[in-house]
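Help!! Second protein's tokens look totally different from the first
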Amino acid sequence: MMNKIFTKIPFIDNVLKGIGQIMLQENRWTGLLFLIGIFIGSWQGGIAILLATSVGTFTAMKLGYDKYEINAGLYGFSAALVGVALSFFFQATLLIWILIVLGGALASIIQHFFINKKIPVFTFPFIFIIWVCVFLLHHFTNIPPSEMISAKPEAVAYSEFITPINGFGEVIFQGGLLSGVIFFIAIFISSPAAALYGLAGSLLGAYFSYMDGESIEGIHMGLFGFNAVLSAIVFSGFKKTDGLWVLIAVLITVGIDDFLIDNNILTEVGGVLTFPFVAGTCITLLIQRLFIPKKLN
């Protein structure tokens, strides 16, 4: 039944793949589970991510971008993150909904520029748009923060199992354990290797941050693991060397993450977001290209 819907209405398929591409999975079912997990955390976040991804995908279609890239969801994931981030940081006023629409379209356009230049920037369009929006909204409006930002975190008894799972949830601004579990399952059905390496990356991110003296509460919430999850997924695979590249990428990503947070860099524009992932992954890719022979890579 669902497959028939996807066949008859390819736009829905493209939107769901765009949501799935948040964690680099070109899989409609992954995207659908991500969407469910977000709605569980916040219905406004669910509507925001659905709206922004739809706008980003529609923009790519109207501007005549490559159909294969659109079908793969490459013009949806940054737009999706713009939507959920704005709904996470601010109360859903009319201006915020307008920015979600405009931000979704702009994310698609910026993504296309880098795709054309063959520059792997991953979620950078989302990062740039949110940094600009948060700075302008904080300095030129009085829009209050969302309830998720202003509410005091509940006291939760964490365990070694819950902490790495929370890293998956925080990739899409979800702090609930159930959302994190759903996200992990969503990736596992698409790529077991990506899910397991992502879990290892989240655990390593938490451990390295703990050794670096970061906030225990923040570590338990997954705030020091979600960038590592993404970096690990990028280099996941079944080659013997994949584990080494995952470790290198996670180490670089966590190092950048901890440095920025420790020095309060980017706090005025919404925080580090997924910038440590983008920077750490790009540096690792550069190391691969510069120092490793192609036949061994």
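Here's the second one for comparison:
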Amino acid sequence: MMFRNVKATAFVALFCAVGGPVLAGCDEDSDSDAGASTPSTVASAHNSDPDPISGTVKITVDGRSVNVSCSGAAAGDRPVVVLLPGLGDGLDKMADFQKTLSEKGRVCSYDRLGEGASDQPNGPQTFDSTGKILTGVLDRVAGHHPVVLAGHSLGGLIAARYAPAHRDRVAGLVLMDATPSTIIADTKTVIPESATGPAADVRAQSVAVYGGDNPEKLAFQDGKVDSAGDIPVEVIQHGQPYLAALPEYGPALENAWSEGQRKWLELSSRSKPSTAANSGHYIYVDQPDIAVQAIQRVTAEAGK
């Protein structure tokens, strides 16, 4: 892959939003150790009433080893918060954020296959197959408890795709600058095939990522936004434009991303939008208080 050959921040911005720091070199330093691995254990998923996980352990889901971290204490029937990082990020990226959230409830995160300390996928993945792993993780970390999924970037897209078909267990959603549901079409429309120079590289490399040339071997699929019912949903968008820095095509990419955030409001009749005014793509790093408060609100509403 050629991502690190694209030097200017104007041209890596799209990859920060889609492919994460491993692909784009856009990581933001985070001296976090709250998610540091403790001695690993192997546990079996699909347990309706599992023993609580404390710290970071390995569980087995569908024959694959998945790295999971849980912290905080469960409070009655209050939903368990499950964090989903973006593409190219492991659970360690969200460790400080998880530590803060766990002061008021049970919070878990995990490395998807191909990320962090989890196994590599056996082959190409789809949203269905990555959703199957998510189900196994929820079985183990939440059991019969409802969950609030809080996803960043691709993690938000996966959460939003998962929730409508799993209304029996997903009680709320928080999407932090989630990848739009039409990201492939948006990119191809804004940057035409006739584009030349660096913009042509951006288009080609983006399409490669969407097609599965990424750590998770996950092939993206555009689709409509399905309803998850009337669960509480908060959609948080970045407030500091960065895609707009790409000459000629950047402003249109920024507009398409904003429209994608608005489309996510169709997930529920109780969806609410907000903007992290001083944040780039990594809202939970730039303005963690905004993300923490959104998750706490959704969790409280979902627990009623």
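Reply: Different proteins will give different token patterns, so don't panic. Residues 1-13, 21-25, 28-48 have pLDDT under 50 and may be disordered.
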